[in-house]
Amino acid sequence: MFSHVKELQYNAKPTQPDPVYAKKLQEILGGQYGEMSVMIQYLFQGWNCRAEGKYKDMLLDIGTEEIAHVEMIATMIAQLLDGAPANDQENGAKDPAVEAVLGGMNPQHAIVNGLGAQPNDSAGYPWNARYTIASGNLLADFRANLNAESQGRLQVVRLYEMTTDPGVRDMLSFLIARDKMHQNQWMAAIEELEQTQGAVVPSTFSPEHEKQDVAYSFMNFSEGEESSTGRWAKGASLDGKGMFEYIQNPGANGQKPSLIPSPPYIHGTPPVNIRNMQNGKDMQAPN
After folding, report:
1. Where along the chain is composition biased (Polar residues) (predicted)?
2. Domains of the chain from N-terminus onward
3. CB atoms within 10 A of CB 252
């Protein structure tokens, strides 16, 4: 059960309207790594969690907080749109709506949303539920969450640099700090799970079903050998169960693909035509 509190978690008050910046702010609302994505991701991970206890409780804690962040950003976008497109113009003959759109404002903010936020990214692409990850494996999910918070914090920091509005920066500084905490939170949870489950997901799969001769081999498939100096190319593996091996020329160890001709109803190219074309002859198959 959710209960709405009328006050925001933190202030979302711009100093002045800025419809162009409102369009940019849509990215951290409805983008792939925006607040809508992490809100849905954490809540579904929590609702789907079959392990009662601290992890389920933590997921629902943070998922609920992300609802508050969605509300804050939506409120900020709406206030950035105040006075747009009906703003003061030096030339009274200008159409303020056209002026705002030409200046980079999202026209749908005025036409579709009535000067409000929308569940889209900064390019107008609708938020997509396929952005969310809730696999049922907590270690895999928490690593996805760490990635989401890392990308999200990066985007908020970039948006911070794109404005000088002290009110907007104040709200973004709060979100940046919370994203730092959330990254630390996921790293702590990952560390705990790795101590009991191991580092590789899933830990329940039997090694006897893996090709062990390539399980710890780093294969160089590009020019140069710079990658050979990395931690991933030598020494003990991070799961503690093997030794990294660097292979300079891995080569090909599989069969040469050879597909049988397609059945007549597919109406593909007959094999003889392909052979003739490969030989430089433009011939038709014999009748």
Report:
1. 275-287
2. 19-197 (1.20.1260.10), 207-247 (no CATH)
3. 6
pLDDT value, residue 88? 40
Residues 6+ apart with CB under 8 A from 80: 14, 17, 18, 19, 21, 22, 25, 168
- pTM for the predicted model, two decimal places: 0.83
Of 251 and 144, the one with more pLDDT: 144
**In which element (H, E) is residue 38 found?**
helix 35-48
What φ, ψ does residue 167 adopt, rounded to 5°?
A: -70, -40
Structural tokens at position 229? 């100096």
As a whole number of angstroms, the distance between CA 63 and CA 82 comes to 29
Report the pLDDT value the prediction gives residue 275, as an integer from 0 to 100. 56
Angle at 139 between CA 138 and CA 142, to 5 degrees: 80
Answer whether residue 135 shows pLDDT above 50. yes
- Predicted local distance difference test score (pLDDT) of residue 103: 60
The sign of the dihedral angle between the CA atoms of 3, 4, 5, 10 is: positive
- Spatial separation of the C-alpha atoms in residues 263 and 26, rounded to whole Å: 51
- pLDDT (tens digit, 9 = 90+) per residue, 94-118? 555 555 555 678 888 877 788 888 8
> Token pair for residue 44?
């579904």
Pairing of strands 217-219, 245-247: parallel
